[in-house]
Amino acid sequence: MRTQRQVVDYSLQKRAVLRELLAGRVGTYDVCDASPYLKNAARFHGEPTDLRCPICRSENLTLVHYIYGDELKQSAGQARTLTELPVLAMTLREFQVFVVEVCLGCDWNHLVEQYLLGRDGLTGEGADEQDVASAEGAGRRRREAQR
After folding, report:
1. pTM score of the predicted model
2. What is the pLDDT of residue 2?
3. Torsions phi, psi of 118, nearest 5?
4. In principle, which of 24, 34, 68, 120 could form an S-S bond with 107, CB 3.0–4.6 Å?
């Protein structure tokens, strides 16, 4: 997406959790604890992938995109499909997206990445014109104060 910025990738954390699980320091029930709400969001709003679950290896993972932001009001915290995100990014100034991978078979879930979307990320003349106008206004005020 054009406006995607400030991306945080959690793949190192995922590898650390899987390493702890394989070493026996963490149990399967500690990492396979998807809530019923998350599983329903994966079923109805998730994006299926070709990646196998790292725990059960029998199911493919599903990605769920949760959105948060001040402009969203009551919609904050809802799961959205990947096709809805560009439309929201063009209508809202800024919101945060959290991507969670879920296995519907064994309940594995992990935060994959988070990023910002919205019109504020577009580089264009609108932001530059606003900066120039505010700088000109400040210069004009300074000259008037000196008179």
Report:
1. 0.77
2. 60
3. 140, 175
4. 34
d(CA 132, CA 138): 10
pLDDT score recorded for residue 135: 44
Distances 25 to 30, 96, 103, 106, 131 between C-alpha atoms, Å: 10, 33, 22, 19, 54
CA-CA-CA-CA torsion for 134, 138, 143, 144, nearest 10 degrees? 90
What's residue 145's pLDDT?
47
E strand intervals along 4-117: 5-9, 47-52, 60-68, 79-80, 95-102, 109-117
CB-based contact 92:71 (threshold 8 Å) = yes
Residue type, 64: V
**Core vs surface per residue 67-85: b (16+ CB within 10 A) or e:** bebeeeeeeeeebbeeeeb
- Average pLDDT for runs of 10 along the chain of length 147: 80 96 94 95 95 95 94 87 90 92 96 90 50 46 47
Is 21 within 8 Å of 133 (Cβ atoms)? Answer: no
On whether the CB atoms of residues 93 and 122 are closer than 8 A, the answer is no
Q: State the Cα torsion 48-51-55-59 to the nearest 10°.
A: 50
